[in-house]
Amino acid sequence: MIVKQASHPSPEEMTLVTVMGALSDPIRVGLVRILADGRERGWGELRAPIAKSTLSHHLRVLRDAGLTRTRQEGTRCFVELRHHDLNARFPGLLDAVLEAAHNDDVGAHVTVAGDPQPT
Amino acid sequence: MIVKQASHPSPEEMTLVTVMGALSDPIRVGLVRILADGRERGWGELRAPIAKSTLSHHLRVLRDAGLTRTRQEGTRCFVELRHHDLNARFPGLLDAVLEAAHNDDVGAHVTVAGDPQPT
DNA sequence: TTCGTTGTTCGTGAAACATCGAACAAGGTA
DNA sequence: TACCTTGTTCGATGTTTCACGAACAACGAA
């Protein structure tokens, strides 16, 4: 609704502590994992066992921390990971988190519509 | 004290989300930075602008997450970073965090007695 | 214009967290 | 034994976070 187009922090505005806080929730880690392939995803594709207002909240935390970028297109919006910005700002951090999250299968209950459910 | 000797999680018991949560506070990041040189530090050496009960709390969070190891010796105790365990469990993560924390000077208000104050 | 879709915002409540001062427990020291 | 030092634990308090349903706003379609 563009009521308030989300604020995307510039790389300099990102802080380590905020990013770590954003990644201290399994649902948010799951969302980041889904976006890790670089593809932009529609809001509606995302599946998580929470109410949509809660999902909106988590997407906002990720966006405010600088982890994701949100784009509006008509009435729907798309999210993508700010892979490049993150690597520039915190070299190696995102990859280390993604590897760890993959090994432990963190946030596996977050999926994408159309994708085969794990297990 | 020693009333309950702290539980140190084994590497397998460590979780990414808990570790990230532990590192989402500037004081705790400052403590980790101090311990990053591998030296064991006495509790009494640590200087932070908080009450001692609060410092005790933060050290417990770090310990419970598996980031540090605490050793008792008589009435005083010593802390050290579990650098090796962390690298084995979450490869690259700690180094990426330490580099980012250093670049941004996160947790600079946490110091060690005897060390020259930054600035 | 009237719906239906889509996602944000609001109001609320429960849980977690950071912080403090005070009390406590274990060792060392006088 | 009496005292001091060292850290932990115990409430108490205020803030933040997570979660939900309901209401709302913008857009597209009928």
Automatic annotation (TrEMBL), chains A, B:
Pfam families: HTH_20. The keyword Transcription regulation applies. Residues 8-101 form the HTH arsR-type domain. Keywords: DNA-binding, Transcription, Transcription regulation. SUPFAM superfamilies: Winged helix' DNA-binding domain. It comes from Nonomuraea wenchangensis. SMART domains: HTH_ARSR. This is DNA-binding transcriptional regulator, ArsR family. The lineage of its organism: Bacteria, Bacillati, Actinomycetota, Actinomycetes, Streptosporangiales. GO terms for molecular function: DNA binding; DNA-binding transcription factor activity. The keyword Transcription applies.
